[in-house]
Design goal:
Low-confidence stretches: none
Order of helices and strands: EHHHHHEHEHEHEHEH
Strand order of the largest sheet: 3-2-1-4-5-6
Number of strands: 6
Number of helices: 10
Oligomer: single chain
Largest sheet: 6 strands, parallel
Distance between the termini: 11 Å
Structural class: alpha/beta
CATH architecture of the largest domain: 3-Layer(aba) Sandwich
CATH topology of the largest domain: Rossmann fold
Length: 223
């Protein structure tokens, strides 16, 4: 039986908050420099919607701007994020690599299903050398619907996965699990919201808690 654990990236494996504010500040400084923004950086608004696809982010943060400006802003923000990752300003959550090694030892396959863009996710995986454990990283860019449930379905069908759980911190992760008849593990980390986590099958405060949950609810493959 092909068993898998499908992880979200931002706010689940990667501490996005460590590069979010500075990257967003840089981006809105750029908008101010070209007279496309006046006022403080809307960091709190971004935190509230964290986890949605980036096109939806810019619709929310720049509601009166043209689509062209939104696309330019998206590209600038992505470049800034990647630069900050390569500069070592981000961080993984505690125990990511330890958990991944455990999962690999126990014959679980590891996948990423993220609303982040392809180049951004690749920068994180490369910088922290996560490809040692991850089978494949899937970005919302690969799905026309921009629906995370469809993204998880793509992982399941592409890799012929029989059983899996989805691990994430936002409602999009929880709903992606439900849409595919999977169980969800909600991470009570920086961007999580109580009303969303209440809809998860399980809630954890540390990634290593996943070990016990898997032993009970998704037994490892037998040799």
């Amino acid at each position: 039986m092909n068993l898998a654990v499908i992880f979200d990236m931002d706010g689940t494996l990667f501490q996005t908050d460590k590069i979010l504010e500075c990257s967003l500040d840089d981006t809105f400084d750029h908008l101010r420099s070209i007279n496309e923004w006046d006022g403080p950086t809307p960091i709190d608004t971004y935190r509230e919607i964290m986890g949605v696809p980036l096109p939806k982010v810019w619709e929310t943060l720049l509601p009166t701007h043209s689509e062209d400006i939104r696309k330019q802003t998206d590209a600038y923000f992505l470049t800034t994020l990647i630069t900050n990752i390569h500069n070592g300003q981000g961080a993984l959550y505690p125990n990511v690599q330890e958990l991944f090694q455990y999962l690999k030892d126990q014959n679980y396959s590891i996948y990423i299903a993220s609303n982040g863009l392809i180049d951004y996710l690749a920068a994180i995986v490369q910088y922290y050398q996560l490809d040692e454990w991850i089978e494949e990283t899937f970005s919302i860019q690969q799905i026309e619907t921009l629906n995370k449930g469809d993204l998880v379905k793509k992982i399941l069908t592409t890799h012929h996965i029989n059983q899996a759980v989805v691990v994430g911190d936002r409602l999009s992760d929880i709903n992606a699990a439900k849409d595919n008849g999977l169980r969800s593990i909600g991470c009570q980390f920086e961007f999580a919201q109580a009303d969303e986590l209440a809809q998860a099958d399980f809630v954890i405060n540390d990634l290593m808690e996943i070990k016990e949950l898997l032993e009970i609810h998704l037994p490892r493959q037998k040799a």
